[in-house]
């Protein structure tokens, strides 16, 4: 996973968390947003996305 991809994932995760805790998104949509934020944060921190492997996508310029 490339550094730009990691940065975008962390940014999206942060925005989703802020939207949830500010009350902008609530209920089921809020919970789904938090789950997506958690997945984005974890995949960004470990630099690996299992979905990318399944579809053959590579955003890292080193590989």
Mind explaining what this structure looks like?
There is one protein chain. The protein is mainly α and 63 residues long. The chain has one domain (3-55). The protein is built from three helices and no strands. It has helices at 3-21, 27-46, 50-55. The protein is elongated.
Attribute tags:
mainly alpha, 63 residues, single chain, 3 helices
Oligomer: single chain
Q: Helices and strands: which structural class?
A: mainly alpha
Mean pLDDT: 87
Q: State the distance separating the first and last CA atoms.
A: 9 Å
Q: How many domains in all?
A: 1
Q: How are helices and strands ordered from N to C?
A: HHH
Largest sheet, if any?
A: none
Poorly predicted residue ranges? none
Shape: elongated
Estimated share of beta-strand residues: under 5%
Note the total helix count: 3
- In total, the number of strands is 0
- Backbone CA Rg: 13 Å
* Helical amount: over 70%
Summarize the structure.
Keywords: Membrane, Transmembrane, Transmembrane helix. The chain is an all-alpha fold and 63 residues long. It has helices at residues 3-21, 27-46, 50-55.
């Amino acid at each position: 996973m490339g550094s730009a991809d990691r940065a975008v994932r962390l940014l999206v995760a942060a925005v989703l968390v802020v939207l949830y805790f500010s009350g902008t998104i609530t209920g089921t949509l809020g919970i789904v947003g938090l789950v997506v934020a958690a997945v984005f944060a974890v995949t960004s921190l470990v630099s690996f996305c299992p979905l990318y492997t399944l579809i053959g996508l590579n955003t890292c310029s080193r590989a």
